[in-house]
Known about the structure:
Elements: E1 3-6, E2 9-12, E3 17-20, E4 23-24, H1 29-40, E5 46-47, H2 48-55, E6 59-60, H3 63-77, E7 87-90, E8 94-97, E9 102-105, H4 132-135, H5 148-153, H6 159-166, H7 173-198, H8 204-214, H9 232-246, H10 248-279, H11 288-318, H12 323-354, H13 363-380, E10 388-389, H14 393-416, H15 422-432, H16 441-446, H17 454-476
Antiparallel strand pairs: 1-2, 1-9, 2-3, 3-4, 5-8, 6-10, 7-8
Helix pairs in contact: 1-3, 6-7, 7-8, 8-9, 10-11, 10-17, 11-12, 11-13, 11-17, 12-13, 13-14, 14-17
Amino acid sequence: MPxxxxxxxxxxxxxxxxxxxxxxxxxxxxxxxxxxxxVERRHEAVHRRDIxxxxxxxxxxSDSALSQxxxxxxxxxxxxxxxxxxxxxVSRHGYRxxxxxxxxxxxxxxxxxxxxxxxxxxxxxxxxLLPVAETLPTxxxxxxxxxxxxxxxxEVDPFEPLLQTLTRAAATPEEExxxxxxxxxxxxxxxxxxxxxxxxxxxxxxARALLRDTRWDSANAGAVPIxxxxxxxxxxxxxxxxRLRRAARIAATRWASAFIGGGVAGVVGGIGGGLLLVSAPxxxxxxxxxxxxxxxxxxxxxxxxxxxxxxxxxxxxxxRSRRTLALIAGAAIGGALVGGxxxxxxxxxxxxLVGLHVDVGGAFEGLTLGAAAGLGYAATxxxxxxGLAAPRGGRRAQVATAMAVTCGLAALLLAISDRPxxxxxxxxxxxxxxxxxxxxxxxxxxxxxxxxxxxxxALIGTGEGALFGLGLALxxxxxxx
Length: 481
């Protein structure tokens, strides 16, 4: 694996470092990967699609994530988008690394020991280069970090203009991106000092939220606490709004995929259960029952997938700290909400239309299955960072398997507690209705039970839960083209 020299910089993919005359320039891992990718393919304009497939291959992110990454890399390199020296934007296509004199060499020479050089010392063979401060822009645009003491002693205060930009209401998308850049620069100057100077000036909650959001994209950023600081509720709300607004389109796509995945799983379960019921000895169910059960299963699975998927997508987009807890809570809340609505509508419809009083599950079952789905999803996508997880191949199969297992176990516990899912509810309604032909008693006899008993409830419930988890997982992890 070679290293690359261009201008004052040495880029070492092997050691994952970028140096400028002996001083390391920090980049978060995905941004470093993006720079390496552009340098490796410097002889062509790289399409945005190829960048997403290479750098964000395990998550789905908004287009603004790539724009922000390019902006950060340009600032690190001291580049200007209007007169690019290193990275040029190719309209309606992507980006290209345009610096002509890139030297590709083995990564085993003396320059690999740059970490041992004194700060500012020249690298071997670069004695004629100007010092960093003379060749690169000021205001911390290429420094890994600046101490608050050095800033305080300078004649020009770089903090105040950036803080004013941060606390000003943005009217256009360009101004919003300018605010994000100002937040990143404040992290470069010193996060703690920026927070101290921010204080409780007007719109400080929004500014704190933006600093909190951008710290994940700034390699040298410090902690930005919310609790124990001024206006924690307003700051938290502003942070959630920021992240959801940037990920709204992706979250909506994820929600739709979860709806489809849950619906397909319900259809498959309905068809399979219907065929077993029709073919069971002593069953009076007609073949048309297969289609009826498929429709009911598809509707129940789709609604459950929509609620659980919406909760998961919103939580994943809004929370990057305490991700596991947020995913479990979000999925549980989403499942409980749609389950409660379905429960109320079902009970009201049965009582009003046919005069049946049947215990129909909904809210509690939705909460339990949602929490189980969130647990399985969180446990197998913990490495995803910066977007909504979209693993491929074997990793996607791991997510689907884990969610099928957790949802199946949750459904088994519900069945043991005599809280049936779709199949058990259909049996209860059929049993209470005179002349119904879709009771599941023939299925129970098929497995050796005289009536629809605990074993039947457990088998049917576990199968339903596992199918739901599998379909939901495949829908959630679907990567849009």
